TrEMBL record, chains A, B:
Pfam families: ADH_Fe_C, Fe-ADH. It comes from Flavobacterium keumense. Its EC number is 1.1.1.1. This is Iron-containing alcohol dehydrogenase. Residues 9-177 form the Alcohol dehydrogenase iron-type/glycerol dehydrogenase GldA domain.
Length: 387, 387
């Protein structure tokens, strides 16, 4: 087990009907920017619930934060906060809105060009001068409601970049599982797979003797396999919705990565597919992940075998189980409605590998992954296998 | 799944060699009370490590906090803090020292009789006027290093009482698994069982559709079964020590109880055996727990069957598996060196049931447990079965 530091001060309020607690969670006398996305909160009643709970607060609204939120969009909110002296931000949305609000929070008082936050991957530590924020989660998937990371897209350069730090934890997050009732099936499918791959990134590396961490990771995978296919058909079932939502939060609230190596190469490659073709984030992960396991089979096969045995109850030799575990993963992704080839998700893809390899080269990235053995040659192989 | 609120701001620093970080964790210019127990920290080198790390701080020492710490002892530390204007407390010890420091922290500025903190079970919420404290864990078992609860004994009345609240979270806890190398086997055995029963109290209730919570609880049980028998023989093995220590913290840092019912009757009854006969806390749990499952079999059998299948891989009818799960638990306790009858741990025990029933009656406690169906009749039956 590796040494680790665990610190997560988010106050998580989980359950039905909890949105009304908002008024007790935001500091009195705050001037609040309510940030949201494309307007689904108007249809599903969450906007009304939030507005009712915020009676008595001075509220400014900022809508239109897109999926894979753009730096360019978020800077508009930064200007509003600076001009109107807003002192609290409430993100009402999924991972994109919450990630966007983290960027807004960090950028308002940032000394220098806010673009540097992304390009230089600035770390915002406790005590940094940021605007405090809370969240009302409307789409379980990313865990952003209980972590301190953020991924932002830059429209001008078609890039996705991440940043974070302990000042980027929400002060609170309200997770009401009933909000998923009105979500489109596609978004529910994406949420399940996003959370599932988050766990795999932190689990499917090499044996590291973090026995408890492994078992907790497997717990989340098993729960997502159990509830995932059902919840997309029955999003009003509270048992399914609550286990789905809680699994998504636990998949990326920092806990399971403590003391163990992690990979994240599937995400790094997947981000490029979103930037290039606007493929849904989760779907890029479902495309890349299995091919990454195939190409890096030799160095991942011990964990693949453990995963196959414990999560899919596979039997056979270690090598057989490890290979079958990849196929079982693909089968699960297909069950969840994923199409696991780039060509099933986008057109004119023949230069994808060249493009991504070139871009990584330009950034000076020579290798990725928990062993830093995913070289640019292997990157090309993974992407080409994914066509 | 029940609604829940999760908030745990403890900064947990986990791993070898981390004690030296103390100087960066305690606020500069603090006057620090270093509180410890019977002096084992002088033998195992931890005292020296702590003193070295605290160079430059104004330090006052308070030793002699006993196992099952006494109110009477702790009040001496309260006086010292008041007299010497100390503004930070560092607990160096196991659950008893840490629980004791929580009481000291709460009592210093408490308006009124500090005994009321225990008798009236005062809740110390965020913002309460308490003395901030951190911990260096020397004995994994209770999870006190990452929770906000405390159990204190009262010498005058032979009672054990608990209190807590979100102001009672340590500011930080340093958990270095190498500290267990010098612990007596008996304390290691107790630590494993203490953590194991902590999980059972939060898990072995009734089916509640918290699928993920159940699986995480089972993860901790499985890890303790895997490492427990080995770690007591090989406490210098870092893999065993680190998984043991992390399991103990995770067993009672609040996470697995979120959204599910919990029991705690085994603890309530066990506390009385410690108060009466000074039986080690963990050993009282090993005595009472299995008999509680036997007496409340009808209302616990569904979870017992799930536990038997998933943790012990038992097969048979649901009823058979549930019964065998109790026996498998007792067998595990025996493997861990527990003696599971009161008479194997103390003499002159014939009035135990009368005494405990009378005491619970006097407190007005009519029933315990997750269904409040552990009545005084059943309490008597459990205690008598334990003779």
């Amino acid at each position: 087990m590796l040494n680790f530091e665990l610190y997560n001060p988010v106050k998580l309020i989980f359950g039905k009907g909890e949105i009304e607690k908002l008024s007790t969670l935001i500091p009195k006398e705050s001037k609040v920017l309510v940030a949201y996305g494309g307007g689904s909160i108007f249809k599903n009643g969450i906007y009304d619930q939030v507005k009712t709970a915020l009676q008595g607060f001075d509220v400014v609204e900022f809508g239109g934060i897109e999926a894979n939120p753009y730096y360019e969009t978020l800077m508009k909110a930064v200007d509003i906060i600076r001009e109107q002296k807003i002192d609290f931000i409430l993100a009402v949305g999924g991972g994109s809105v919450i990630d966007g609000v983290k960027f807004i929070s960090a950028a308002v008082h940032f000394q220098g060009n806010p673009m540097d936050i992304l390009h230089q991957r600035i770390l915002f530590k406790e005590g940094a001068d940021v605007v405090p924020f809370g969240t009302v989660l409307t789409l379980p998937a990313t865990g952003s409601e209980m972590n301190s990371g953020s991924v932002i897209s830059i429209k001008a350069t078609q890039e996705k970049r991440d940043f974070g730090g302990s000042a980027m934890f929400p002060k609170f997050s309200i997770c009401d599982p009933t909000v998923i009732a009105s979500l489109p099936k596609r978004q529910l499918q994406n949420g399940v797979i996003d959370a599932y791959v988050h766990v795999l990134e932190q689990y499917l590396t090499y044996p590291h003797k973090g026995y408890l961490q492994d078992r907790i990771a497997e717990s989340i995978l098993q729960t997502l396999i159990e509830v995932g296919p059902q919840v997309v058909e029955n999003p009003t079932d509270y048992t399914l919705a609550s286990n789905f939502m809680w699994s998504c939060t636990m998949a990326l609230n920092g806990l399971i990565q403590k003391g163990v190596p992690s990979d994240w190469a599937t995400h790094m490659i997947g981000h490029e597919l979103t930037a290039l073709y606007n493929i849904d984030h989760a779907r890029t992960l479902a495309i890349i992940g299995p091919n990454l396991f195939r190409v890096l089979f030799e160095t991942k096969k011990e964990k693949l075998a453990q995963y196959g045995k414990r999560v899919f109850q596979l039997t056979g030799t270690e090598e057989e189980i490890a290979r079958q575990a990849i196929e079982a993963t693909v089968a699960f992704y297909h069950t969840m409605g994923m199409k696991t080839k780039i060509s099933e998700n986008a057109a004119n893809i023949e230069n994808t590998a060249d493009f991504i390899v070139n871009r990584f080269e330009k950034r000076g990235w020579k290798a990725l992954g928990e062993r830093q053995n995913l070289t640019l040659d292997k990157l090309r192989e993974i992407v080409e296998l994914s066509y």
